[in-house]
Amino acid sequence: MTLELAIVLPTLNERGNLGPLVDRIERALGPDGWEVLIVDDDSKDGTADEARAIALTDRRVRVLQRIGRRGLASAAIEGFCATAAPFVAVMDADHQHDPALLPPMLAALKAGEAEICVASRFAEGASTADWAEPERERLSGIANAAARRITGVALTDPMSGYFMLPAAAARALVPRLSGIGFKILLDLLASAPGILGAPMTVKEFPLQFAARREGQSKLDRAILFDFLAGLYDKVLGRIIPTRFALFGTVGALGVIVHMAVLSALLFVFEESFTVAQAVAVLSAMSFNFWLNNWLTYRDKRLKGWGAVLRGWIGFCLTCAVGAFANVAVATLLQSEGLFWALAALAGILIGSVWNYALSSRFVWGRF
Questions:
Q1: I want to staple 318 with a disulfide (CB 3.0 to 4.6 A). Which of 89, 278, 358, 361 is the partner?
Q2: H or E element, residue 128
């Protein structure tokens, strides 16, 4: 039978899930006509090795092990470009997504009923009884309203990670996709009008969302921030790079920390401006590192006390020149009579571009 469908499985520490999931996919689709592309983000539990072991005896399974790259969106993009199948699906490897939906989704696409099929946790007939994450369910309402405005498509579950579309359409959209974070479905739908000439027609399938079998979730409490970042990228990403905008947003919050520390040292502890500015720079820099690690570079997030400590030291070192320029410029301007707050802001502006360039390269990887 001719290859019809590729199922892209972005994985992170999913070793024990792979074999049972391939068996479930075979029960749903039959013995042939499909392939599984396991795109693994260099899992520490040997997921890629397990995938290769399966592939040795099952030619329907292929493996892409990524070194130094993470994120569901970019994993899906690499899967789109790595298959010859005319249709491609993306689903999680943790058994929360039911493979039984694959045949009706494929049939709907082949019949021309839609240009993309989405498995929805919130469509009529769906269930999240086994999910037990009410906070994530509440966020879906906010996300749905925002997604409808940006994409022009009404969805009950715009944050779904389980969908299917023609591979040619997916590859046509790749040049416009940001590849940042986890919301690849939103990215596809929002990019479609500019490339395909009109919004994609969508058919939703109610999903019985199951409990995670085992492994590590690729999502966390920063999911709404990630979703909003995707919206920003679609609206302004061509003008200001998304990750720089996120870095700048964190920096703006750091300004508040900087000014609070500076004011306290100047007016409460009566320190000299130079000392106060230096301490404020270090405080804001530490705050910015923590928030950037949690949000801006969450797909590259440093975890564990050792990695975080090394990252913080690296962040401080790579930003040292920017920090020196910050303090020097601010001190000079203040000594020339410029109001202390304006002098501090001028110093912050001088150091920000340098900080972004070097920290992106040496702390969180190459961008």
A1: 358
A2: none
> Collapsing DSSP states into helix, strand and coil, what is residue 323?
helix
- Which residues on adjacent β-strands are paired with residue 253? none
* Tokens read off for 314: 């690296």
Classified as helix, coil or strand, 120 is strand
CA distance readout (Å), 135 to 119, 123, 158, 211, 230: 20, 18, 16, 16, 20
Q: Would you kindly state where each structural domain of the chain is located, as residue ranges?
A: 5-236, 242-362
pLDDT score at 332: 86
The H or E element spanning position 68 is: none
Cβ atoms of 51 and 14 within 8 Å: the answer is no
- Which one of 3.90.550.10, 3.10.280.10, 3.40.5.50, 3.90.930.60 gives the CATH number of domain 5-236? 3.90.550.10
Q: Six-digit token pair at 53? A: 């072991």
pLDDT value at 216 more than 50: no
> Would the pTM of this model clear 0.70, i.e. be above it?
yes
Question: C-alpha 321: how far from its chain's center?
Answer: 30
